């Protein structure tokens, strides 16, 4: 099984710039044409646009002929879910006895760094243990 290193690819300085590890959602927005251009009478004002990352630089939903057909759906669903949750709620790690909330946050961040792994899609781990036989009806 070969898995891409998504984190490295999607924070690669060559495609994402020196601040690739910074939370800056505006990097995905292409600003509207500048006022300067307008003053010079060149071109028309354009709305700001979603900046399509360079091909192959953002592959969370894969890319190419077999990429994810649920991409748009899940992106909209994701935003709706996050907004519904965080509009009225905030979340913190459960603190252990004697632990401060800052220490608990640090502990959880460390776990995210050291205790995460790539698992893509539901699958039988050992299909060879359940061999099937096809026979003509
Ligand atoms: C955050 C949500 C999602 C992510 C990150 C995601 C990601 C992906 C990725 C990476 C693949 C390619 C897998 C591979 O190459 O083996 C894939 C395939 C696929 N996804 Fe999604 N997906 C998401 C949500 C959805 C939703 C909501 C649907 C359906 C409504 C969906 C339907 C599919 C299907 C049918 C394929 C197989 C396409 C093919 O093999 O031609 N996905 N998805």
Automatic annotation (TrEMBL):
* GO MF term list: heme binding; iron ion binding; monooxygenase activity; oxidoreductase activity, acting on paired donors, with incorporation or reduction of molecular oxygen
How far does the signal peptide extend, from start to end residue?
Answer: none
Q: Which Gene3D superfamilies match?
A: Cytochrome P450
Tagged with keyword Metal-binding: yes
Q: Which controlled-vocabulary keywords does the entry list?
A: Iron, Metal-binding
The entry's protein name is: Cytochrome P450
What does the record give as the organism's lineage? Eukaryota, Fungi, Dikarya, Ascomycota, Pezizomycotina
């Amino acid at each position: 099984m070969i898995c891409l290193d998504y984190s490295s690819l999607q924070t690669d300085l060559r495609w994402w710039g020196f601040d690739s590890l910074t939370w800056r959602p505006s990097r995905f927005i292409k600003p509207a044409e500048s006022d300067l251009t307008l003053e010079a009478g060149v071109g028309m004002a354009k709305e700001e646009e979603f900046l399509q990352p360079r091909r192959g630089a953002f592959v969370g939903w894969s890319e190419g002929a077999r990429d994810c057909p649920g991409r748009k759906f899940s992106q909209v669903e994701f935003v709706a879910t996050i907004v519904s949750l965080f509009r009225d709620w905030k979340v913190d790690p459960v603190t252990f006895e004697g632990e401060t909330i800052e220490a608990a946050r640090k502990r959880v961040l460390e776990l995210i760094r050291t205790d995460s792994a790539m698992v893509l899609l539901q699958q039988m781990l050992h299909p060879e243990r359940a061999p099937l036989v096809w026979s003509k009806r």
